[in-house]
Amino acid sequence: MTDASTSAATPALTSEIRDRVAVLTLNRPDKLNAIGAPVLDALEAELDRLRDDDRVRALVIAGAGRAFSAGADLDEIDRCTGPYDFRAFVHRMTDVYDQVQEFPKPSVAAIHGFAFGGGLELSLACDLRVAGRGARLGVPEMKLGVLPGAAGTQRLPRLIPPGIAKQMILTGEPLGAERAHAVGLVNALAPDDNVLAAARELAGLLAAGAPRALAAGKQLVDRGPGMDLAAGIAYERETVSVLFSTQDREEGLKAFKERRPPRFTGR
Predict the structure, then answer these.
(1) What is the DSSP annotation of 63-112?
(2) Per residue in 28-65, pLDDT tens?
(3) pLDDT for res 5
(4) Among 63, 144, 146, 206, which residue's Cβ finds the most Cβ atoms within 10 Å?
(5) Res. 263: pLDDT tops 90
(6) How far apart are CA 208 and CA 202, in angstroms?
(7) Average pLDDT for 239-255
(8) Which of 16, 44, 46, 121 is catalytic?
(9) Is 141 assigned a catalytic role?
(10) Residues 6+ apart with CB under 8 A from 249
(11) CA 175 – CA 185 distance, rounded (Å)
(12) Are the C-beta atoms of 178 and 135 separated by less than 8 Å?
């Protein structure tokens, strides 16, 4: 077990590695895991540390206590003296969330209780989401007279139908987990007391894949929609051609013929 934080006594984030999966847990349960500088600094540092750690092939991001995250730290927002301060605050959030999305190893958000505002936006930066059946997911900023500022207005409509994204953003009303699953915001549902275990299990399936193919697959899906179809197909063709020369491709074919699980090494 390792901790990443600005305070050894009260870590803002904890990190545990087990079975090739790193679980990063937002650790401010007394503030419903509000996301501000301590969490962002710790998350960025841990992503940097795990990027080249061969023991880790997938991430789970979870929250301690009774919720995934209530969103951005309102105390920090209250200290913003004007739009430039606030812009710096949300810029920092989006920078770190971009690092989550661009992390070369796949990630799963384990959502229990609720994920609101900046908390939901953090989960949107993950590749996949598992939610407890009683969880609620939303961007309530409209009720405060503002809008999501950490890519919520951009990632939501790329993930779910635009009409439903508009409903969430313009009303500020959350979706229940069942509805979120039905529209594709959540990949899997789990009992409320078993969300982390279910997210670990899904991350374990991801971790069993070939590391280079996993990283390439993330890039293809994330970047492809920004290209026209012909360019996207060409990008895919070049990517899989490179993967064909890897040792993992050879191991995958050999394991298939021998009817055994492959032992991928990332080479």
Answers:
(1) ESTT-SB--B-HHHHHT--SHHHHHHHHHHHHHHHHHHHH-SS-EEEEE-
(2) 999 999 999 999 999 999 999 999 999 999 999 999 99
(3) 35
(4) 63
(5) no
(6) 10
(7) 85
(8) 121
(9) yes
(10) 210, 243
(11) 10
(12) no
- Domains assigned to the chain: 2-207 (3.90.226.10), 211-258 (1.10.12.10)
The catalytic position among 44, 46, 76, 141 is: 141
What would the DSSP string read from start to end of the chain? -EEESS-SSS-SEEEEEETTEEEEEE--GGGTT-BSHHHHHHHHHHHHHHHT-TT-SEEEEEESTT-SB--B-HHHHHT--SHHHHHHHHHHHHHHHHHHHH-SS-EEEEE-SEEETHHHHHHHHSSEEEEETT-EEE-GGGGGTS---SSHHHHHHHHS-HHHHHHHHHH-PPEEHHHHHHHTS-SEEE-GGGHHHHHHHHHHHHHTS-HHHHHHHHHHHHHGGGS-HHHHHHHHHHHHHHHHTSHHHHHHHHHHHHTS-------
Nearest CA to 194 out of 109, 126, 132, 108 is that of 132
Global model pTM greater than 0.90? yes
Residue 8 predicted with pLDDT over 80: no
Give the pairing type, strands 13-18 and 21-26: antiparallel
